TrEMBL record:
A motif (HXXXXD motif) lies at residues 311-316. It is a peripheral membrane protein. It is found in: Cell membrane. Residues 306-433 form the Phospholipid/glycerol acyltransferase domain. It comes from Marinobacter lipolyticus SM19. GO terms for biological process: CDP-diacylglycerol biosynthetic process; fatty acid metabolic process. Keywords: Acyltransferase, Cell membrane, Lipid biosynthesis, Lipid metabolism, Membrane, Phospholipid biosynthesis, Phospholipid metabolism, Transferase. Pathway: Lipid metabolism; Phospholipid metabolism; CDP-diacylglycerol biosynthesis; CDP-diacylglycerol from sn-glycerol 3-phosphate: step 1/3. The lineage of its organism: Bacteria, Pseudomonadati, Pseudomonadota, Gammaproteobacteria, Pseudomonadales. The keyword Lipid metabolism applies. This is Glycerol-3-phosphate acyltransferase.
């Protein structure tokens, strides 16, 4: 018997060696740590359908991952001969009609053992295997034959699939199931225990397959034609024909043209081509890609239509996210791309990679708007994953931009029309140590006109590929189920009927709530890196320079501050220490070293001083509250704790709106008190009898507190400029638009006069947001003539600013305000 087993094992090993002369695999989860296996319990792997080739791949990956062997006998009696089993076996041969698969005898034997030996548990590890990963395209027999799809392949078809797609095989090991827990309630019914375990495993394999392959795709031409035949588009065609006095046939042709312009044409060949090209590209320009919390995307992709909502820092964002998802076993999403990217050569490639194109504005084109809305509705109801940027455009300052409601509103309205398929938003933070467009952003912030995308511009970008752009991080944030947001906004929404045109009165509130949560969850997934930490500290100094040892010490201390009170579980911190970070920034050419006998000086010089504000702004929100607390001691030796909490709480809504902080206003007082306690614990402040004192001048603690306050001080200065101008004109004397314009001009003037190097200091949109928030909070109101009025409460806010701003800064702002009056 042993001789036969040894011979059998030898034959299988030989076949496995032969198979892997051709097959190449991409594997996920094949480690003891990833699976969380209990070493004291036996392990049994399960594949969905019986297949010799699948078994050989499983054994190979178990060996590579140093996992408990799939070839070894399972240490339980009457169970499978080996520590793996197939859930189903096929009925019917090569020339016989294939019938519905049935559970294998090994599966039944394992369940029987579990019922007879309740004291022994078995860890069942489901393993999914895909020979190539292609979404189906209806009416495409070639794709059905040559790709791993939703259908069960026969032996001949499997042979062709392995030959054609064996070098693109994906294997996914998933979290183990406890046999004991699954069958516990059916101790007296083997048949029901069999059905329950089979149902759980069947559901699991179906969910993984949907996440990896995506839902079935219609042929693009069929999809485009179908859009024009929808009731909403038909009505829009009739209305446009009536209003513009155009024959309906011409309007229908225009609608078809719009649909053809919009629709993606995802091609697995293109996706694989892009995978190869992008792998080469990332290795050339980046020192590595760190992917964190990918499990969020894997979990929600199995039962939901997923909307990926990344921050937008670079054109690299959407390429990088699709690449990361594909490499981790998830179907790349359909990506909303600006029509400006639909240029020769590039546009068709992007379209086949999943991009669908949209015009920047279609407010005055109801026909186009209807076609686009219907296209989005098809995406969601069929369960596609979709990606779009809520910010609309790329951030030139490194901050999260105010979300634009358009795409979010379309998504919500589509879900209200048909909510059988749940929609879940997955925020994604993409963090660069050196953004590729950094220098062009610098020019735009200095007033240079934004250049339109073109093939020639792309050619110029290619020349940068010899440069190193450091590491990049892709962090997945906490998922947001859309129905949760709707339940919070309008609990009875399920009881209402919605059509394509209906816009309920509560819809804007739901979209605003969703937008705020998406932006906050993106920021809560930030990747702190050496560039951001170095930029934050150096930009907090007077001369943008610091003794190297002092800089290292401060960075370590501020990093410890973030670690002691983590902003969110999804925030990631850089490896190493301040010493490593300074050296790294130097190799990246972002800081300069000035040798000096008493100790080298690290400084920011030239355009790098402005460019580094971009990387400081990436992580500014993490330091917002402790920096705000520290700033209260700029002009005061001590304050009552209650006064600190009150002032910080009053300022918080404005910081929250601008920096998308995650804490609700009703909980922020507790968070502020926690920060005060931590800052006292770390020696940044001293408390005596309920009064908080700053450290003595000239001490290291006072330096830490002062530099910390400067992380956020320019934001407070900007607020004070707007308030100063409003008070200068007087109540009822200036409109919101005029206040925004005057504030922007004076902030720009002040940045020149006083050497402020942060471009966002005179960002018009930030002033607009601050004015809108003062109106929202009732600090100012708008009269019938559109002029801003205020009460004595605004004067109190201005007086409180005396505690925050130093004498020099107050005088500087007052001087600039008077010059602009």
């Amino acid at each position: 018997m042993r001789i036969l087993q040894a011979l059998r094992s030898l034959i299988l090993t030989f076949f496995r060696k032969i198979l892997f002369l051709w097959v190449r695999t991409d594997v996920s989860g094949n480690s003891r740590e990833a699976l969380g296996l209990d070493p004291d319990k036996p392990v049994c792997y399960v594949l969905q359908y019986s297949s010799m080739s699948s078994r050989l791949v499983l054994e190979q990956e178990v060996l590579r991952g140093n996992l408990p062997g799939a070839e070894a006998s399972l240490p339980v009696k009457n169970g499978p001969v080996h520590s793996f089993f197939f859930l189903y076996r096929r009925i019917g041969g090569l020339f016989q009609k294939r019938q519905t698969p049935v559970p294998t005898s090994e599966f039944k034997a394992l369940v029987r053992f579990g019922l007879e030996h309740p004291e022994t548990d078995v860890q069942i590890v489901p393993v999914s295997l895909f020979w190539g990963r292609s979404p189906d395209k209806e009416k495409s027999l070639v794709k059905l034959l040559l790709s791993d799809t939703w259908s069960v392949a026969g032996r001949l078809q499997k042979l062709l699939i392995i030959m054609l797609h064996g070098r693109n095989t994906y294997v996914q090991f998933n979290q183990p199931l406890s046999l004991k827990q699954v069958i516990e309630e059916y101790r007296h019914s083997e048949e029901r225990a069999n059905r329950k375990l089979a149902r759980i495993l069947r559901t699991h394999f179906r969910r993984v397959r949907q996440a990896v392959l995506g839902p079935d795709l219609s042929h693009r031409r069929t999809l485009v034609e179908g859009l024009v035949r929808t009731q909403a588009v038909k009505e829009a065609i009739r209305e446009t024909a009536r209003q513009d006095d155009i024959p309906p046939e011409k309007v229908r042709a225009k609608a078809y043209k719009y649909a053809d312009e919009i629709a993606a044409s995802m091609s697995i060949v293109t996706i694989r081509f892009l995978e190869v090209v992008l792998s080469w590209l990332w290795n050339r320009i980046y020192n590595g890609i760190a992917v964190n919390n990918i499990r969020v995307a894997k979990e929600v992709a199995q039962d939901n239509a997923v909307v990926y909502v990344p921050c937008h820092r670079s054109h690299i964002d959407y390429l990088l996210l699709s690449y990361v998802l594909y490499k981790n076993g998830l179907m790349p999403p359909h990506i909303a791309a600006g029509i400006n990217l639909n240029m020769p050569i590039v546009g068709p490639i992007l379209r086949r990679g999943g991009a669908f194109f949209m015009r920047r504005s279609f407010k005055d084109n109801p026909l186009y708007a209807t076609v686009f809305n219907e296209y989005m509705h098809v995406m969601f109801t069929r369960g596609y994953s979709v990606e779009y940027f809520v910010e609309g455009g790329r951030s030139r300052t490194g901050r999260m931009l105010q979300p634009r409601p358009g795409m979010l509103a379309m998504t919500v309205r589509s879900f209200l029309r048909n909510h059988r398929k749940p929609i879940v938003f997955v925020p994604v933070y993409v963090g660069y140590e050196k953004v590729m467009e950094g220098r062009s952003y610098l020019g735009e912030l200095r007033g240079k006109k934004k250049q339109k995308e073109s093939v020639f511009g792309l050619a110029k970008t290619v020349r940068k590929l010899s440069n190193s752009f450091g590491r990049v991080a892709v962090n997945f944030g906490e998922a947001i189920p859309l129905e949760d947001v709707l339940n919070e906004t309008h609990p009875s929404w399920r009881n209402e009927a919605f059509d394509a045109e209906y816009r309920p009165s509560w819809l804007p509130d739901a979209v605003d709530r969703l937008a705020t949560r998406v932006a906050a969850n993106i920021n809560a997934s930030v990747a702190v890196n050496p560039i951001g930490m170095t930029a934050t500290v150096l930009l907090g100094t007077d001369r943008l320079a610091m003794d190297e040892s002092q800089l290292i010490r401060l960075m370590d201390q501020y990093a410890n501050l973030l670690k002691a009170f983590p902003y969110a579980d999804t925030v990631t911190m850089p490896e190493g220490s301040g010493k490593d970070w300074v050296a790294y920034c130097e190799t990246m050419g972002l800081v300069t070293r000035q040798p000096q006998k008493l100790g080298d000086i690290i400084a920011l010089e030239g355009s790098n001083a402005i460019l580094m504000t971009y990387y400081r702004n990436n992580i500014q929100h993490l330091f917002a509250l402790p920096s705000l607390i520290a700033s209260l001691f700029e002009n005061k030796d001590s304050l009552q704790r209650d006064k600190i909490v009150f002032l910080a709480s009053v300022a918080y809504p404005y910081f929250q709106s601008e920096l998308f902080l995650k804490y609700d206003p009703d909980e922020v007082e507790g968070v502020i008190n926690q920060w005060i306690d931590l800052m006292i614990e770390q020696g940044l402040m001293v408390e005596e009898d309920g009064r908080i004192y700053r450290p003595e001048e000239g001490t290291d603690a006072m330096l830490r507190l002062r530099v910390l306050s400067r992380f956020i001080i320019q934001t407070l200065e900007r607020y004070h400029i707007a308030i100063g101008i409003l008070r200068k004109y007087g109540s009822g004397r200036i409109s919101a638009a005029e206040l925004e314009e005057q504030s922007t001009l004076l902030a720009e003037r002040m940045s020149i006069l006083f050497g402020l190097n942060a471009p966002e200091f005179f960002d018009k949109s930030l002033f607009r947001n601050f004015i809108a928030n003062m109106q929202k909070n009732g600090v100012i109101t708008t009269d019938d003539n559109g002029l801003l009025s205020y009460t004595e409460g605004l004067d109190e806010v201005a007086e409180d600013a005396r505690l925050v701003l130093s004498v020099e800064k107050r005088q500087a702002i007052q001087q600039v305000t008077m010059l602009g009056a």
